[in-house]
Design goal:
This protein is mostly helical. The chain has helices at 2-15, 19-33, 40-63, 68-78, 81-110, 117-140, 149-165, 171-180, 189-217.
Length: 218
């Protein structure tokens, strides 16, 4: 699995397809947090929203790097479709973790805040919720599921809007609502950690559904 992650990480790096979602994330974080001096929970909710979009785009780009014949060769080398898919999930997660570090620091660079350890923990949890949810969306809207990229884009937009606006049903919507009304990070650390678990379960379900569709198509 480590070899698969290293291979996919290198392929994505050399393809430079990570640049567009990376620049989107940095740009949104800069615009949404520039000159901000409000509570950090609300600030990190904006960064988490940017992570949702970036992680979905990054996952779709990663899955779409290889055409079907090339992917078939990789599957044969890895031994199974599932191993390649899990390698893709792990690679996307590694990229999102790198972005999480940037997401913690950018608001402190562009704004004026008093930082406490609870703020950094909350910022990490918030970005993880959105990263895991975005990765699930990216998998379900990837080339493995949709052959036509136009349909994939429409599906991704619908699912991302549902994640953002689905009141009471989406971990992302619950997260953003909690953070917008929180006066201190410590007040919502517990509830946010529960949402991280819910987002992880969502990613697991998205991975299982994508694998089932991939195996059926093959």
């Amino acid at each position: 699995m480590i070899a698969m992650v290293r291979y996919l990480f290198t392929v994505l790096l050399l393809s430079q397809r990570y640049l567009a979602p990376l620049l989107l994330f940095v740009g949104l974080a800069a615009v949404l947090t520039s000159s901000d001096s409000g509570p950090l929970p609300a600030t990190y909710s904006a960064v988490a929203g940017a992570m949702l979009l970036c992680s979905a785009w990054l996952t779709m780009a990663l899955i779409g790097l290889e055409d079907p014949p090339h992917r078939a060769i990789v599957v044969v080398g890895a031994g199974s479709h599932l191993r390649v898919l899990l390698g893709s999930v792990a690679t996307a997660a590694a990229w999102c973790l790198l972005l999480t570090g940037a997401g913690l620091g950018l608001p402190l660079v562009f704004g004026t805040h008093t930082v406490h350890p609870a703020d950094l923990v909350l910022g990490t949890e918030a970005q993880l919720v959105c990263a895991l949810t975005g990765m699930a969306v990216g998998l379900l809207c990837s080339r493995l599921v949709f052959r036509r990229q136009g349909y994939a884009l429409v599906a991704a937009l619908v699912l991302l809007l549902a994640a953002l606006l689905g009141k009471g049903v989406s971990p992302v919507n619950l997260l953003l609502t909690d953070l917008q009304h929180a006066s201190a990070s410590a007040d919502v650390l517990g509830s946010t950690s529960v949402l991280v678990g819910a987002a992880a379960a969502l990613l697991a379900a998205g991975t299982a559904a994508t694998h089932a569709i991939t195996v059926r198509k093959s």
